[in-house]
Amino acid sequence: MISLSDPTPTLHSSLLSASTKLGFFHLTQHAVSSHLALSAESAAASLFNLPDHQKKHLFPNNWPLGHEIEDDDDDDDESSSATESFCLDSSCSAESENELNMDSLREFTHELEKLGYELVEELASAVGFEKPGRNELCSLMWISEGMNKPGRVYPYALGLHYQIRAQKQSLLSDSGWATVMRPAHSILVTLGDIAHVWSNGKTKKVRGRGGIPISSGGDVDDCMTMSLLITLQLESTVSPLVIGLVADRECDSTGDDDRSSEAPLFNSFSFEEYAWRVYHERLLLKDPLIRYRV
């Protein structure tokens, strides 16, 4: 549990511990209201009730944005349902705004986005990497419906998952699968592969979009997730941002052993190419960053 109201030294110590040991934490005492979250959930749930032709019209596929129904061809369980999802930009825009009331979902997304940007800056200070510019970042609201299904994977730095009601979630971290109980009105924050590279491998990462719901009932609210991903613009280059990073220790003209510096563990790579690969190849159980390690 981490509270943003803690004094800065305590906050940074907690962030450093959680990010380097687990790759996720529960955020409490945040500014996102439970009333807004409930209104946003109602608006999000209504999207799944739209006729299929209207979903395609209002949310055309424009990777990674749009509406998608993903069938798991490898799943032999006939009772298993497909994963249906909507990926929206930060303004939660649709082709025809007059046909939908997206105000609460849009406001909810903006509140999570503001919180996510603040957490990125605090995490950078706690772990010791350069703060990325706001113009380099963007956010995606990913709304999914499907039991025990990870859905499509998209690279991100931070994932924010508001917990409206207490519920068990399953997530895949560097240490393996974990089941977490998310207290009501807390926010599960997961660190993704982009933060892992920024920190030069110091932070653990959670693969996929974060918590996969484990439901005890058949209510749509039990299996619907709303995840705000703080990620990068497609044209970005991903590289370690650790302060004091040196390409080659032997090139130090002073000959001193600068113990504050370290060698990069990752080569720089194109975010767009990486995002396309992990999204379409569904590399959930394999670490897609291996090929970029030095």
Task: Provide structural commentary.
Helix 1 (8-21) packs across helix 4 and helix 2 packs across helix 4 (103-127). Helix 1 (8-21) links the parallel strand 1 and strand 2 (24-28). The strands form 3 sheets. The chain has an 8-stranded mixed β-sheet with strand order 1-2-9-6-11-5-4-3. A 3-stranded antiparallel β-sheet has the order 8-7-10, with no helix packed on it. The protein has helices spanning 8-21, 34-48, 52-58, 103-127, 193-198, 220-223, 271-281, and strands at 2-3, 24-28, 66-70, 83-89, 137-145, 158-162, 167-173, 176-182, 187-191, 206-213, 224-232, 237-238, 269-270. With 294 residues, it is an alpha+beta fold. It contains 7 helices and 13 strands. The protein starts with a strand and ends in a 13-residue tail after the last helix. The protein has one domain: Jelly Rolls. It is globular.
What labels would you give this structure?
single chain, 294 residues, alpha+beta, Jelly Rolls, eight-stranded mixed sheet, three-stranded antiparallel sheet, 13 strands, globular
CATH second-level architecture: Sandwich
What is CATH's topology name? Jelly Rolls
Number of helices: 7
Rg measurement, Å = 19 Å
Unreliable spans = 74-79, 249-257
Structural class: alpha+beta
Distance between the termini: 34 Å
Strand content: 15-25%
Total tally of structural domains:
1
CATH level-four homologous superfamily name: B-lactam Antibiotic, Isopenicillin N Synthase, Chain
Mean pLDDT figure: 84
The secondary-structure element order is EHEHHEEHEEEEEHEHEEEH
Q: What is the overall silhouette? A: globular
Number of distinct beta strands: 13
Q: Share of helix among residues?
A: 25-40%
Main beta-sheet strand count, sense and barrel state: 8 strands, mixed
Going across the major beta sheet, what is the strand order?
1-2-9-6-11-5-4-3
CATH class: Mainly Beta
